[in-house]
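Key result, reporting period 2: structure in, sequence out.
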């Protein structure tokens, strides 16, 4: 009986893990398709980010933000303040700009 419960728990864990991986692959495929269709390349987005704020760009990456293709840039001002700049990947407009709050990605990079 105990062996059957353990086996059932192992199967359930495998199903949950497999489903999670499949969803992640679907998200990655959707983001890659959005990237391929983006009208604005990362070099242009970098220029927009540099024009949007005085300082240096620490990072820039392509993301899907609420289903919209964007570049997310993090800039560091001369005084050390960090700013996040969201740039529309289809027309190059600055969508949002504000204080950088760290990695708030739902997957997170929590080491604790």
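The corresponding designed sequence is given below.
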């Amino acid at each position: 009986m105990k062996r059957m419960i353990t086996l059932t728990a192992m199967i359930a864990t495998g199903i949950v893990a497999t489903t999670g991986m499949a969803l992640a692959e679907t998200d990655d495929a959707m983001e890659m398709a959005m990237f391929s269709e983006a009208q604005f390349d990362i070099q242009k987005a970098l220029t927009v980010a540099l024009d949007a704020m005085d300082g240096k760009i620490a990072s820039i990456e392509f993301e899907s933000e609420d289903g919209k293709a964007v570049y997310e840039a993090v800039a560091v001002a001369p005084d050390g303040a960090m700013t996040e700049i969201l740039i529309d990947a289809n027309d190059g407009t600055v969508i949002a700009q504000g204080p950088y709050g760290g990695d708030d990605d739902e997957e997170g990079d929590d080491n604790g």
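Confidence is low (pLDDT under 50) at residues 18-23, 105-112. Residues 62 and 71 are 4 Å apart (CA to CA). This case is discussed further under Risks and Mitigation.
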